[in-house]
Design brief:
Elements (H helix, E strand, L loop, with lengths): L3 H9 L5 E3 L10 E15 L2 E15 L5 H11 L4 E10 L4 E12 L5
Parallel strand pairs: 1-2
Antiparallel strand pairs: 2-3, 3-5, 4-5
Length: 113
């Protein structure tokens, strides 16, 4: 199962800079991303606790309306053992950025022990 560090590394391997949770100052590049953990999910079975999974977001910010960065992230996600979905695409008028947001699920909380 992937760890949070593995997921961050896999996303960074697309050539798009990624940070965990936030950038101090976003990089001076066309596209960049942020990987976050938002919540946990408790799975049960046979009336007992079975496993905890994490849920989070992958945020991609881009200055250009081209599909290169979006396609790179989507292609990478297809290769990983992770559930995900595209949640939203927004234009942020105050920063003039296009913001893609994926929701992911699947990292075990055991990965932080």
């Amino acid at each position: 199962m992937l760890t949070f560090a593995d997921l961050l590394s896999e996303l960074s391997s697309t050539g798009i800079p990624f940070a965990a949770f936030a950038w101090g100052t976003p990089p001076d590049v066309e596209s960049w991303g942020v990987l976050s953990i938002d919540s946990g999910i408790s799975l049960t079975g046979d009336n007992t606790h079975a496993e905890d999974l994490l849920e989070g977001t992958i945020d991609l910010y881009t200055r250009v309306l081209r599909a290169d960065a979006f396609n790179a992230i989507n292609a990478k996600l297809r290769t990983l053992d992770l559930a995900y979905r595209l949640n939203s695409v927004q234009y942020e008028s105050d920063t003039r950025l296009i913001h893609y947001e994926w929701i992911w699920q699947g990292l075990s909380t055991d990965q932080f022990e």
